[in-house]
Write a structure and sequence with these properties.
By secondary structure, this protein is α/β, with parallel strands linked by helices. It folds into 2 domains: about 5-185, 3-Layer(aba) Sandwich (Rossmann fold), CATH 3.40.50; about 195-325, 3-Layer(aba) Sandwich (Rossmann fold). It is built from 11 helices and 12 strands. It has helices at about 5-15, 40-45, 55-70, 90-100, 130-135, 150-160, 210-225, 245-255, 270-280, 305-310, 315-325; strands at about 20-25, 50, 75, 110-115, 140-145, 165-170, 195-200, 205-210, 230-235, 240, 255-260, 290-295. The protein is globular and about 60 Å long. One of its GO terms (biological process) is pyruvate decarboxylation to acetyl-CoA. This is Pyruvate dehydrogenase E1 component subunit beta.
């Protein structure tokens, strides 16, 4: 099952289950979505529930928030989260804070979804990872799926959640095929927001990642295995809430921690994980400094050779894991 098809299936099932669920965004209806994630949904549910919008992110994000405040459950697609910067006031202030400012009286069950982070050859303005941006905001839940099962189970949970959820997908994973369990095929398949998954168990070093960096971390773990190094790979799934307990449990076992992400190094997801580990009991279990692997601290280059150097890959992750074990050459 591909991530694209898993997302499509999640939305179809939730629209069949709840008449209040609808989709809106640029080209989501007649064009089947810029990345074909919403393919066929307009034909099944009509243009009342799958709606093309004008090219005005601030405008249609505001419509989505208003619909959610009125009791509907909109799924608002951004063609890329880079364009959602036009709508960040609606996401952070209107969606994220209304429940608190109403004294808990008004819920805002909206999902903002779309591709996030670097793709390939889309340059500086279309390559940013917004995980840490939205992850810092009280009132928002922030999800970053990796696999097809992540996409289906977490999107269904996000649509049913009474809170605003920022759902950060990855363009390069849309066509990636993943194993598809019997459980995932069920209409009631849900994954809890705020719970990480141990993708590979290990005993020597903990590698924590999210989105496409999980894929590269698993590749690195496979190479490390050939050298007798057992790496545990954790797929965060959720940025906010952050499942620090699963990370801490792993660090207590391996005594070493490497974080991997595609965002900028300053004030990132890895920075938050590192802070929470060293500020708590995790510090006493570390036998080496925590190392953060991130995107380069520059606007993402357009030139392919430079772009390849701007983000962590499996060899770099392997090298960091070896450094944690004092085995780097």
């Amino acid at each position: 099952m591909t991530c694209r098809d898993a997302l499509n299936q999640a939305m179809e099932e939730e629209m069949l289950r709840d008449q209040k669920v609808f989709i809106m965004g640029e080209e989501v209806a007649r064009y089947n979505g810029a990345y074909k994630v919403t393919k066929g949904l307009m034909d099944k549910f009509g243009e009342d529930r799958v709606m093309d919008t004008p090219i005005t992110e601030m405008g249609f994000a505001g419509l989505a928030v208003g619909a959610a405040l009125a009791g509907l459950r909109p799924v608002c697609e951004f063609m890329t989260f880079n364009f959602a910067m036009q709508a960040i006031d609606q996401i952070v202030n209107s969606a994220g804070k209304t429940h608190y400012m109403s004294g808990g009286e008004v819920h805002c069950p909206v999902v903002f979804r779309g591709p996030n982070g670097a793709a390939s050859g889309v340059a500086a303005q279309h390559s940013q990872d917004y995980s840490a941006w939205y992850g810092s905001v009280p009132g928002l839940k922030v999800v970053s799926p990796y696999s097809a099962e992540d996409c289906k189970g977490l999107l269904k949970a996000a649509i049913r959640d009474p809170n605003p959820v920022v759902f950060l997908e990855n363009e390069m994973l849309y066509g990636h095929t993943f194993p598809w369990s019997q459980a995932a095929q069920a209409d009631d398949f849900l994954l809890p927001i705020g719970k990480a998954k141990v993708e590979k168990e290990g005993s020597d070093v903990t590698i924590v990642a999210h989105s496409i960096m999980v894929d590269r971390s698993l590749d690195a773990a496979a190479e490390l295995e050939k050298e007798g190094i057992s790496a545990e790979v954790i797929n965060l799934r959720s940025i906010r809430p952050l499942d620090i307990d699963t990370i801490l449990k792993s660090v207590k076992k391996t005594n070493r921690l490497v974080t991997v992400e595609g965002g900028f190094p300053a004030f990132g997801v890895g920075s938050e994980i590192c802070a929470q580990i060293v500020e708590g009991e995790g510090f006493d279990y570390l036998d080496a400094p925590v190392e953060r692997l991130t995107g380069a601290d520059v606007p993402t280059p357009y030139a392919a050779p430079l772009e390849a150097l701007a983000f962590p890959d499996a060899p770099l992750i392997s090298k960091a894991a070896k450094r944690a074990l004092y085995r780097a050459q």
